[in-house]
Design brief:
This protein has two domains: 256 residues, Aldehyde Dehydrogenase, Chain A, domain 1; 183 residues, Aldehyde Dehydrogenase, Chain A, domain 2 (3-Layer(aba) Sandwich). The protein is 37% helix and 21% strand. The strands form six sheets. A seven-stranded mixed beta sheet has the order 15-16-17-14-13-19-20, with helices on both faces. Helix 3 packs across helix 4. The radius of gyration is 25 Å and the shape is globular. One of its GO terms (biological process) is L-valine catabolic process. Belongs to the aldehyde dehydrogenase family. InterPro entries: Ald_DH/histidinol_DH, Ald_DH_C, Ald_DH_N, Aldehyde_DH_dom, MeMal-semiAld_DH.
Length: 506
């Protein structure tokens, strides 16, 4: 919860980054950053004042005047250095992330690594930002395009991937020649700030990257500020819809990756052991706090007979603090998240689903104050139930049944979200039919969490995405640049022209 001004010397405070300087906020509003396994207060994060947020944007606007003219090779070399620094500090970054967010240490390293891949991609900006040219489109006339930066961009990032998602945003924007204002999640900004420190160490000039902290006021300032040209958001559907509508109404570009309810379809011919293990990892990993998790499994035909084995495997998963060796499921991020998840489990029981494995109130030795919920499995779930309609964002798996593949596809396509989906099968024909008929942005075939590598763009669809262009990959270059088309003719001084009142270039 938000607290009054920090008491001198009590706990560390998270700084703002404005104009290349890490500065102490003068706000009177602070929020505790709490270790979800112990409830220890790790630090306090400020809700920046309006003046501080305006100063961050002004710094970015001023820096853009020179950064946009920086040679593309110089920009690329910064990100070559940055990826090296991230690699060298991987263990430290993972430890910070685990302390404030709760992930296991291996999962925290994975969080950082998937962001690192985008940083490496940003270092290739020289080939990514190339325009096009057509020679002699008319007599002596050439036409070409320039992919130029658009100005000050901003990013609003969620709690569940506090390393990866900021690294989806500011490296690509800055590599394209823009400047950036980042607003990390106020729940776990510490690893983000360490990544920002490393970015400054890598050579990002003063003012090119700025960081503000806060809640609703910070989000609205980003949406409203006339000097911000583009907004990238990852988070809940409710907030993402607000950001998209408010930002676009103010004339900004916006890309909003939002909520999900991903499904896995399991065909009877799927490799049983491999499939069950994949389902467990995708459903319960990161305590289910992934927008690309698999909270719904549709068992087709005889595959329904696998349910008892799935439940037995789920019982073997180890629940503990993320720092403990061998942990499979760490705590969820906050007490309020735990309360919400437990409430939805109760609602599932009340609405008639069969609670085959109840993960509420597990006993975790040495961490009796932790926000723990164990793997939970419901069967007999229908599309009308709250546990199906709402994104639980916890280690809760809903099992449904379908008579055949087309019936399963109908279930998936009827859901309003379109973030990710997967099929498990040995049949190439079934896989091809699935990929053609499914109306979801990211499709896995025997791949449980089909998040694309940075060569491609994150392509969620329907209710999971607002905006035409996704993060990273080729699409994000279009998002962070403005195409300028130049048509030119150079005449020889000996040529004699004549007045031409038509639009022809012949």
């Amino acid at each position: 919860m938000t607290t009054q001004a920090n008491t001198q010397g009590a706990v560390p405070t998270v700084k703002l980054l404005i104009g290349g300087e890490f500065v102490e906020s003068k706000t009177t509003q602070w929020r505790d950053i709490v270790n979800p396994a112990t409830q220890e207060v790790l630090a306090r994060v400020p809700f920046a004042t309006a003046e501080e947020m305006d100063a961050a944007v002004a710094s970015a606007k001023q820096a853009f005047k020179t950064w946009k003219k920086t040679p593309i090779g110089a920009r690329a070399r910064i990100f070559l250095k940055y990826q090296q620094l991230i690699r060298e500090n991987m263990k430290e970054l993972a430890a910070i992330l685990t302390a404030e967010q709760g992930k296991t240490l291996p999962d925290a390293e994975g969080d950082v690594f998937r962001g690192l891949e985008v940083v490496e991609h940003a270092a290739n900006i020289g080939t990514l930002q190339m325009g096009e040219m057509a020679n002699n489109v008319a007599n002596g006339v050439d036409t070409y395009t320039l992919m130029q930066p658009i100005g000050v961009c901003a990013g609003i990032t969620p709690f569940n991937f506090p390393a990866m998602i900021p690294l989806w945003m500011f490296p690509m924007a800055i590599a394209c020649g823009n400047t950036f204002v980042l607003k990390p999640s106020e729940q776990d900004p510490m690893v983000t700030m360490r990544l920002v420190e490393l970015a400054i160490e890598a050579g990002i000039p003063a003012g090119v990257l700025n960081v503000i902290h806060g809640g609703v006021d910070a989000v609205n300032l980003i949406c409203d500020h006339p000097d911000i040209k583009a907004v990238s958001f990852v988070g809940s559907t409710k907030v993402g819809t607000h950001v998209y509508n408010r930002a676009t109404q103010n004339g900004k570009r916006a890309q909003c990756m939002m909520g999900a309810k991903n499904h896995a379809i399991v065909m009877p011919d799927a490799p049983r052991e491999q499939t069950l293990n994949n389902l467990l990892g995708a459903s319960f990993g990161a305590a289910g706090q992934r927008c690309m998790a698999l909270p719904v499994v549709i068992m087709v035909g005889e595959a329904r007979e696998w349910l008892p084995e799935l439940i037995e495997k789920a019982k073997t998963l180890k629940i503990n603090a993320g720092v403990e060796s061998g942990t499979d499921i760490g705590p969820v991020v906050s007490c309020s998240a735990l309360e919400r998840i437990n409430g939805l489990i109760g609602k599932g029981v009340a609405e008639g689903a069969s609670l085959d494995l109840d993960g509420r109130n597990p006993q975790v030795a040495g961490y009796n104050k932790g926000n723990f919920v164990g793997p939970t499995v419901f069967s007999g779930v229908t599309a009308e139930m709250t546990i199906y309609k709402e994104e639980i964002f916890g280690p809760v798996l809903c099992v449904m049944e379908a008579k055949d593949l087309d019936a399963a596809i109908d279930i998936v396509n009827a859901n309003p979200n379109g973030n990710g989906t997967a099929i498990f099968t040995r049949s190439g024909a079934a896989a091809r039919h699935f990929q053609e008929e499914i109306d979801v942005g990211q499709v896995g075939i025997n791949v449980p969490i089909p998040v694309p590598v940075p060569l491609f763009s994150f392509s969620g669809s329907r209710g999971s995405k607002l905006g035409d262009l996704g993060p990273y990959g080729k699409q994000v270059i279009l998002f962070y640049t403005q195409a300028k088309t130049i048509t030119q003719r150079w005449l020889d001084e000996s040529e004699v022209g004549h007045v031409n009142t038509t639009i022809s270039l012949k």
